[in-house]
Design a protein that fits this description.
By secondary structure, the chain is mostly beta strands. The protein has 2 domains: 89 residues, TolB, N-terminal domain (Rossmann fold), CATH 3.40.50; 256 residues, Neuraminidase (6 Propeller), CATH 2.120.10.30. It is built from 3 helices and 29 strands. A 5-stranded mixed β-sheet has the order 2-1-3-4-5, with helices on one face. A 4-stranded antiparallel β-sheet has the order 8-7-6-29, with no helix packed on it. A 4-stranded antiparallel β-sheet has the order 9-10-11-12, with no helix packed on it. Helix 2 packs parallel to helix 3.
Length: 392
């Protein structure tokens, strides 16, 4: 019975959407209001100009910092044309003065337009845009079997969705390497839960963790050389690190609980993870070389799926309060707050601006603005999408 209970808890922590409700009062939702910059988008020239104009408009509205308005109400005016070498784009103050962006962006029309949008956002705000980022996620779309989920990649706006795996089994927790050249994930394709790395350029797949028991929850270190993951090869599911190419793992934790869902700090010095050592799942921070863990007080009794922000200041996580919410923990202030509205939200992943998150909500993918609580659905013509992760 004890073994059965332990396996059930491992399943809850590692696989299933959140269904339990917090037994303590949830943090009060705090919404910070932000002022958007009004920009006008003139029709982009070239045969692919109309499509590029729509992509640019959608990117800027999704950014959370810009609002596309008619030219007579704008502060900045954007223009451009599609050429054989990419997109030549300009952003100039409507009142006159030097262009804040004046550059040719290489790539196909969609890629070049995303890069133009990111350049505009960074020029106007000083923070990176995320329109050119990509997503990887699991989806059961197209399968008639309840135990089949394949791994996909797409643009962050949902376009260009491509199926990476044909495993015909359950795939879990895909995550990009920092340079977005690889994706690590776990799969039951062999009959056991093993961890694989896919090289997106060569399309080569390598099984890097195939120890007895569970091999799951892997995340690349910032330099791409190391994985943090959960292994149960020694009996209890514990946190380990190992070379991203495979090899002998190093054990980081030794508890009576279940450890899961590691996420690295941007400098690679620490790992945040989930443990139920004290009862219900909570977040802990641990040196990446091992040592004494620190429990984070999120004021919620059931917190999972942490993700460390690119600027190193925040940790996003899933909570069960309200039927599925997203919280953010401020590391310096040691304070937590709920940043989502609605319910059914889980699996947050930061974009490169450390403000927006991609998350799943009732089988759909959404972009969540942590400052306003606004969500934007990401259409991709797929169903039952879970566990998104963004490239940075």
């Amino acid at each position: 019975m004890l073994l059965s209970l332990a396996m059930r808890l491992l399943t809850i922590l590692l696989l299933l959407p959140l269904t339990l409700h917090s037994q303590t009062a949830a943090p009060v939702i705090v919404i910070e209001q932000t002022r958007k910059i009004d920009v006008a988008v003139q029709p982009i020239g070239g045969s692919e100009g109309p499509a590029a104009t729509k992509v640019l408009t959608d990117d800027l509205n999704r950014s959370g910092v810009c609002r596309v308005v008619p030219a007579d109400a704008a502060v900045f005016v954007l223009s451009g044309s599609i050429t054989p070498s990419g997109l030549s784009g300009r952003a100039v103050p409507k009142s006159g003065g030097a262009a804040v962006v004046d550059k040719t962006f290489a790539g196909d029309s969609r890629r070049a337009t995303h890069l133009f949008a990111d350049a505009v956002v960074e020029a106007l705000t000083g923070t990176p845009g995320f329109a050119s980022s990509r997503m990887t996620f699991a989806s059961a779309s197209g399968s008639k079997k309840t135990k089949v989920k394949e791994i996909y990649v797409s643009d962050i706006d949902g376009a260009n969705a491509r199926q990476l795996t044909q495993d015909k089994s359950l795939g879990y927790g895909p995550k990009f390497s920092t340079d977005a050249s690889k994706v690590v994930y776990s799969s039951d394709k062999s009959g056991y839960r093993d961890t694989y790395v896919i090289d997106l350029g060569s399309k080569k797949r390598t099984c890097v963790a195939q120890f007895p028991g569970q091999n799951t929850g892997a995340a690349f270190s910032p330099d791409g050389s190391t994985l943090a993951l959960t292994l149960s090869k020694d009996g209890n599911p514990e946190l380990y690190t190992m070379a991203a190419t495979g090899g002998s793992p190093t054990r980081l934790t030794r508890t009576r609980g279940v450890e899961a869902s590691p996420s690295w700090s941007p400098d690679g010095a620490q790992v945040v993870y989930v443990s139920d050592e004290r009862g219900s799942p909570s977040l802990y921070i641990l040196p990446a070389t091992g040592g004494e863990p620190e429990r984070l007080n999120t004021e919620s009794s059931y917190t999972t799926e942490p993700d460390w922000s690119p600027d190193g200041k925040l940790i996003a996580y899933s909570i069960s309060s309200g039927g599925g919410q997203i919280g953010v923990y401020d590391i310096s202030a040691k304070k937590a707050r709920i940043v989502s509205r609605g319910s059914g939200l889980e699996s947050p992943s930061w974009t490169r601006n450390s403000r927006h998150l991609v998350a799943s909500q009732n089988g759909h993918l959404v972009v969540l603005d942590t400052l306003t609580g606004e969500t934007t659905k990401v259409p991709n013509n797929l169903s039952n999408n879970t566990e998104p992760n963004t490239s940075r």
